[in-house]
Specification:
The complex is a heterodimer of chains A (311) and B (302). Chain A has eleven helices and 14 strands. By secondary structure, chain A is α/β, with parallel strands linked by helices. Chain A is elongated, with a radius of gyration of 25 Å. The chains are: A alpha/beta (311), B mainly alpha (302).
Chain lengths: 311, 302
């Protein structure tokens, strides 16, 4: 559905996006993660035809977004990370206005507006003025607006930002419904765990560069492979056993860092691809009283920090 | 299909209390002007001198509306595009299938409809001049058409400035300054003397009598055709010949030169060319505004 090829964007001497390439299949819910300034919004604005890239291009359902902006706009629904409100306008009029902008006929406009207000659970607010809605409601109305022309690809830039937990849960529920409707959704956030819960795949950007792209599980597996080792020593060995363990570990070239987390717990960081069993073998043969030896568990927040730090 | 921006903006504007106040204030200003000129007719002893007040009232109403349009149009249109930027709704419009040209035309048509409403509202007040004689219906209608052209030009300036400036306040100031500068620059020929051969023609009765309209039209500075104020004076002079006695005042120098050239060129012709110029300038600004919208986008956040 979406194919990005070597997309780059420079602002004068500053590179906001560097050689980004990725593919998202139809019907996928793809997360776009990165810290502030990573290039998420730039990418999304380019895809929404609001900005021209310095180089590279992207295809939405086979349509080149640079060459055929008009056709692309029919295929995409864009929801920015802000909500622009018009005063003196009712909810149904708001949707009707944007439907007119997409040149949708009157009968179809009415039908779509009603269906979408139902989808975003705002059917009771149909005749309320937009400025009177809560932030969460406005966000949902904005989502309904981006769906008014039945696009194939939805680009949602931090749709849950500034929402309370309840509003976030409602937004997630709507996104699940969209997946059931076979829409391809590209959604950005700077909170990895939030996206990991609902997305099939993820792209992590940092400083305008692609750091990771793939499935959520794939990311966890990859990061767990590089997780540090937690080695707990028997307390009855005393301080001597800890010193002995540290001495042994320092002999191994694969060991890059040794931290004493607790009196009898050492956290050891290994070089990428290092052999874990070899570490254990050495400690045991030297008589170090190891009573627990495992990879430290990595949660998604840590994964995110790890990945973006490395980049 | 009706331009969605026009339908939507008009709905919002008509719901605003401010709109009603503007219409009332506009009407009140015109009524005050007409009362100032036509009040002698309310008395029983009307002298012959009072009969000239009707064309004067017509002229004052035209001039009053001319000034009011210059004052209202920039304030009304300065937020057309800049306001969308401030509300962060411009991007939402640009990602739809409504092109930037359609957005600009929608905004211009909506503002034009509002100013058109004001001008049409002024018609009954203008019609008071008909009751007291000295002014005809076609004259009033032509005057209204001139004001509509002026409104269209002022709106285009406002929308163009709105597409260039980021904020409504800056856009409003720039619009007023642009209109003022345009008026001053196009009036510059009044300050500069004419070449000797033109002055000779004007002051020599025989040469002036031999001068035809086409020749006189070429001698008038092209800048003057662009000046809406000169256009308005030409329209009024063409309709009422109210300023004819001025041409006899030989002490007016370069002003007299222009006046006599214009007299020979044809006042109605000058007014018509002025309307054409205003519409042409408006069309150019409209296209430029559409281009500027796409170029001047909100800064990207990442």
């Amino acid at each position: 559905m979406l194919k990005i090829e070597h997309l780059s964007k420079n602002y004068g001497g500053f590179t906001a996006l560097r050689d980004l390439s990725l593919e998202i299949p139809a019907g996928a819910l793809h997360g776009f993660v990165g810290p502030n300034g990573a290039g998420k919004t730039t990418t999304m604005r380019i895809l929404a035809t609001l900005m021209k890239p310095t180089s590279g291009t992207a295809y939405v359902d086979g349509t080149d977004i640079i060459r055929d902006g008009q056709k692309t706009r029919k295929l995409i629904g864009y929801m920015p990370d802000f909500f622009g409100v018009y005063d003196n306008l009712k909810c149904w009029e708001y949707l009707d206005f944007y439907a007119r902008c997409y040149r949708i006929g009157q009968a179809e406009r009415k039908r779509m507006s009603r269906q979408l207000l139902e989808l975003v659970q705002l059917e009771e607010k149909e005749n309320e003025y937009v400025e009177a809605l809560s932030r969460g409601m406005k966000q949902r109305l904005c989502l309904a607006r981006s769906l008014i022309h039945d696009p194939k690809l939805l680009i949602l830039d931090e749709p849950a930002s500034g929402m309370d937990p309840r509003a976030r849960a409602e937004m997630k529920s709507i996104l699940r419904t969209l997946r059931e409707m076979n829409k391809t959704v590209l959604i950005s956030s700077h909170i990895l765990p939030e996206l990991a819960e609902m997305c099939d795949s993820l792209t992590i950007l940092d400083h305008g560069e692609l750091v990771f792209s793939g499935g959520v599980n794939e990311l966890s597996d990859k990061m767990n492979g590089n997780a540090p080792l937690d080695i707990r020593l028997a307390e009855d060995g005393g301080e001597e056993s800890v010193e002995n363990a540290v001495r042994c570990l320092k002999e191994l070239p694969a060991v890059t860092e040794i931290l004493r987390e607790e009196p009898y717990l050492l956290r050891v960081r290994l070089a990428e691809g290092a052999d874990c069993p070899e570490v254990l073998r050495l400690l045991v043969t030297r008589g170090v009283p190891v009573c627990d030896f495992h990879r430290a568990p990595m949660n998604l927040e840590k994964v995110f920090m790890e990945v973006t730090q490395d980049a | 299909m009706l331009n969605p921006i026009l339908a939507f903006s008009a709905t919002r504007r008509m719901r605003s209390f401010k709109t009603m106040l503007i219409v009332i204030a506009y009407m009140a200003a015109l009524l005050l002007i007409s009362f100032a000129f036509l009040s002698p007719f309310l008395k029983e002893d009307i002298g012959l001198g009072s009969l000239t007040r009707s064309p004067l009232c017509y002229m004052a109403l035209l001039a009053g509306q001319f000034v009011l349009i210059i004052l209202i149009a920039p304030a009304m249109t300065a937020g057309a595009i800049a306001g969308e930027r401030e509300r962060q709704t411009l991007d939402l419009l640009l990602v739809t299938n409504t092109g930037s040209f359609r957005i600009v035309t929608g905004k211009i048509m909506e503002s034009f409809a509002m100013l058109g409403l004001l001008i049409v509202c002024g018609l009954p007040v203008m019609s008071l001049c008909l009751l007291t004689g000295g002014v005809t219906v076609p004259q009033i209608l032509l005057g209204e058409l001139f004001l509509l052209a002026e409104a269209f030009a002022c709106i285009s300036v406002g929308v163009f400035c709105s597409s260039v400036c980021r904020s409504t306040v800056v856009s409003t100031i720039v619009s007023y300054v642009a209109i003022l500068l345009f008026g001053l620059v196009t009036a510059l020929p009044f300050l500069f003397g004419y070449p000797q051969h033109i002055t000779d023609i004007v002051y020599d009765r025989a040469q002036y009598a031999a001068l035809d309209a086409a020749g006189a039209r070429q001698m008038i500075s092209p800048l003057l055709y662009l000046n809406p104020g000169f256009g308005l004076i030409s329209l009024v002079q063409g309709q009422t010949h109210a300023f004819s006695s001025l041409t006899e005042n030989l002490g007016w120098g370069r002003l007299l030169c222009t006046w006599r050239m214009a007299d020979r060129a044809g006042w109605n012709f000058i007014a018509l060319v002025c309307v054409g110029c205003m519409l042409a300038v408006a069309a150019v600004l409209l296209v430029l505004a559409a281009v500027m919208i796409r170029r001047k986008k909100t800064a990207a956040k990442s």
